[in-house]
Specification:
YheC/D; 6-stranded antiparallel β-sheet; globular; disordered C terminus; YheC/YheD family protein; alpha+beta; D-amino Acid Aminotransferase, Chain A, domain 1
Length: 365
Amino acid sequence: MQKQTLGFLIINKKHENTYITEIAKRSEFFNIDCVRFEPMSIDPDSLLINGEKFDQPSQQWINSSFPIPSFIYDRCFYNSHHASKKGKPIVEWLKKNPTTTFLGFGLPDKWKIYTSLRGQQTIDSYLPQTELLNDPIQVIKHLKVSGPCILKPINGSRGVGIIAVKQDSENITITYHKGHDKKTKNFSTLKDLSKWCEKLISQQAYLLQPLLPLTDANNYPFDIRLFLQKDQNGEWNLIEKGIRKGYHGSFLSNLNSGGDPLSFADWSQSLTYKQKYLLEDELATIIHSLPPLLEKQFKQLFEIGVDIGYAQDGSIWILDINSKPGRKTFTKTNPKLKERLYNAPLKYCQFLSNDTTAKGVEIND
């Protein structure tokens, strides 16, 4: 079989260095060469890339020039930073290159995902009521009619930029995180809140959702993270379930915002038999239904992380869907999982090399 090249698309050389290097160490067994590069490192004239190639004898990355690889594993997170904004159109161009196959084509923003899933029979009931925030009056109306709400950047990840808004008899309070630190700001009038909202939505697009009661019996916020991935046969599998538990008084459970990982098995011991049975049944519906719905609406995917809210009344909510999920929630509680995670992209790359239908076909823009 002809040797394939798997390229890791990264924002900088330090990004996910351990994960990418461990995959590269195992690539020789799969007859795959590994390279890594940044979007801006492609020469527009020669189409050669100045990046790094993994050298098996020394087990190190070395500077190298190489053509665009046959397979690409996109690990870039695109945000408002200059390098990221400049890199995104290059990545979109790469995705249209007929000689290259992406392991996964990623997902669009949260609003497009929500609108594509809304009305889908198996999934619709798990979606929190969501609005695209266009006017401060939406926040004010929600506070008066429905109570506390959260504002989410449509392109956010890892809990960055999420804001909780609450109103009591004296003040309106917003709460957000700067890393592990929780910050608050008070407004004494709706006019002041409105001015703040106008400035917020002028900087980037936000979603408005209810602030759901997603805390445990001791008032710690938590969520359930599902990690789904395709195997060597191109079939979706649940790799692991995990729990992320935030600190007391927080409204986020993301590890980036100070949360801690727990094993699902340990956490679920506190549930009654009926609670556990109903929860597992609901999760199974999501696990079975969600990946094919997403691929039908968008493009081919390789892996997704699904954040599930489990409310105090037993209701289940899909809080977020991420096509580039982190793995710390699982590797910290189950280190034995690492070997499977390192081999998975290589096995899937082999599958794609034998699959004539591997190129993703876009259904929606």
